[in-house]
Amino acid sequence: MILTVTPNPSLDRTYEVPALDRGEVLRATAERMDPGGKGVNVSRAVAAAGHRTVAVMPLGGAPGALVAELLTGQRIEVAPVLVVGATRSNIALAEPDGTLTKINAPGPELSAAEAESLLSAVTAHSASAAWIACCGSLPRGLAPEWYAELVTRAHAAGARVALDTSGPSLLAALRSRPDVVKPNADELAQAVGRPLATLGDAVKAAEELRGLGAGAVLASLGADGQLLVSSAGAFYGHASVTAVRSNVGAGDASLAGFLAAGGEGPKALSAAVAHGAAAVQLPGSVMPKPTDLDPSAVTVTADIPLDRALTEQGNPR
């Protein structure tokens, strides 16, 4: 079982539009409504692959009730922590060339009691979890050290933790030694405080995060593929993609594939790359099923072309 933690979940509405013309009335050609949040997406991808998952999150108001209903319909066990504020609603506008414009609401502010209840809910479900995936930004009311406390409690319960967050929350959590962290190129650059122009730069930055406490670093580099840097060495994986339809949740699908495949080594990296490549070819935040995966399109190697320039260079914004 893979347990996911989403401190700031959402109800996501995605509209496909012919073009994004500012100031005009846009007529959508298709629309979707999905439960959102990085941890939620990991649970959705795990469930789509046929594995058991439990999703812990704060939920409030009518949007929160709808998030729980949608997740239950996808065979995901929901462990809600009821909060006073309403769960946020987000909007995404997807253009035919793959360009995505997102409007993310801030979400409710959690009280100290609600923050503690969320930690307690994670601890209560830790015993049966092969992995705990802690994902996304922290809502108002949660200090940057909240994830660090979660990692500490999860380790005390004997669980392995994968962390996908950024900024002060990531740096604070490294002191608690999460087993895996999963930054994208910009988040990796932000963590080390400098731009990343090549794969070699990304490998060096990942090693620095390991020096700060991360057990392993699974770095999503967009069209440039993914890196896995751990005590076993560094591996690089990439896949050929026919056409990008939406990159929403692609990194979350990658993390789900990685954890479902054991969470370590080149085989898990290959699964991560396959899931990410499948996700970008699906509409909105649809998570890939096993039939969507193409393992033959994936290449994983320890012979990393360190001088290769990154198409999507990491910037420490």
TrEMBL record:
Its EC number is 2.7.1.56. One of its GO terms (molecular function) is 1-phosphofructokinase activity. Gene3D superfamilies: 3.40.1190.20. Keywords: ATP-binding, Kinase, Nucleotide-binding, Transferase. The keyword Lipid metabolism does not apply. InterPro entries: 1-PFruKinase (IPR022463), PfkB_dom (IPR011611), Ribokinase-like (IPR029056), Tagatose/fructose_Pkinase (IPR017583). Residues 18-291 form the Carbohydrate kinase PfkB domain. Pfam families: PfkB (PF00294). It comes from the Bacteria. This is 1-phosphofructokinase. It comes from Streptomyces maoxianensis. The lineage of its organism: Bacteria, Bacillati, Actinomycetota, Actinomycetes, Kitasatosporales. The gene is pfkB.
